[in-house]
């Protein structure tokens, strides 16, 4: 029997943009720092609700399972559906986002006086996906890189009062031993001289390796789970990458399932939404011609 460890999964909060009927836009965030079995149950509830909302399937009673069954629920006739859950991880995306997030937090905490020079402005740092990344912020080299960025921003901030309202200013620099290129986009939304908090963030593109879903499914097929009495579904989820129905990774995963003898009757993919028991779902397999 597979043992469920109770350690917390690393916190990779869900972030969603919600467009309301009134036209207002807001950001939703949800922490997923939970023991694995609790996290899988959260994902399962979002999946069941999404099935009802988007696929008109009335699945109910999702609960944690045991052994090879991570979750189980009931279909419209009251029959049990067993579910195995697998996470699709974009490790490279997580690495670069960790660098951006930790440097951003350090700059806000240690160099607030520098950022305050940009009162009434929005500062956005932008970098590319290319490696090497900056050293970890808690290292000596990392702190030196942060100091280099802060000095650069401070020099820009000395003259930022000349930036007109609703105008933008873009600067470029190289940071660290490998000269990582970073852009700073400063936009003024409030006239200079008013004591308005600054908005500061670090963003950029992310790497999108191919076949992440296919690899995760391949590993599950190779485990050769014994047959179960009730239907056995595989639910793949990702908090990193949103895949659409026409995504190449979805297509290649379906081909791989066709070529093998998977233990699963259905394979689904979900990108969970933050603070809502919903998510973006795709039916991976069997494809319409095979079902």
User: Averaging pLDDT over every residue, what do you get?
Assistant: 90
Low-confidence stretches: 1-10
Query: From the coordinates shown, what is the CATH architecture of the largest domain?
Result: 3-Layer(aba) Sandwich
N-to-C SSE string, H for helix and E for strand:
EEHEEEHHEHEEEHEHEE
Number of domains: 2
Helix content: 25-40%
- Count helical runs: 6
**How many E-type strands?**
12
Largest sheet: 6 strands, mixed
Binned strand content: 25-35%
- Stated plainly, the CATH topology of the largest domain is called Trna Endonuclease, Chain: A, domain 1
Shape: elongated
Nearest-angstrom radius of gyration?
23 Å
The top-level CATH class of the largest domain is Alpha Beta
- Structural class of the secondary structure composition? alpha/beta
Our measurement of the CA-to-CA distance between the termini, rounded to an integer number of angstroms, reads: 31 Å
Strand arrangement in the largest pleated sheet: 3-4-5-10-11-12
Chain oligomer state: single chain
Short note summarizing the structure:
With 291 residues, this protein is an alpha/beta fold.
Any chance you could write out the topology, listing elements then pairs?
Blueprint: E1 14-19, E2 25-30, H1 36-54, E3 60-64, E4 71-74, E5 80-87, H2 91-110, H3 112-115, E6 121-127, H4 140-157, E7 168-175, E8 180-188, E9 199-204, H5 212-222, E10 232-237, H6 248-259, E11 266-272, E12 279-285
Parallel strand pairs: 5-10, 6-9, 10-11
Antiparallel strand pairs: 1-2, 3-4, 4-5, 6-8, 7-8, 11-12
Helix pairs in contact: 5-6
Word description of this protein:
The structure is a single chain. With 291 residues, this protein is of the alpha/beta class. The protein folds into 2 domains: 14-90 and 209-285, Trna Endonuclease, Chain: A, domain 1; 92-204, no CATH class. 29% of the residues lie in helices and 27% in strands. It is built from 6 helices and 12 strands. It has helices at residues 36-54, 91-110, 112-115, 140-157, 212-222, 248-259, and strands at 14-19, 25-30, 60-64, 71-74, 80-87, 121-127, 168-175, 180-188, 199-204, 232-237, 266-272, 279-285. The strands form 3 sheets. It has a 6-stranded mixed β-sheet with strand order 3-4-5-10-11-12, sandwiched between helices. The protein has a 4-stranded mixed β-sheet with strand order 7-8-6-9. The protein has a two-stranded antiparallel sheet with strand order 1-2. Helix 5 runs parallel beside helix 6. It is elongated. The two termini are 31 Å apart.
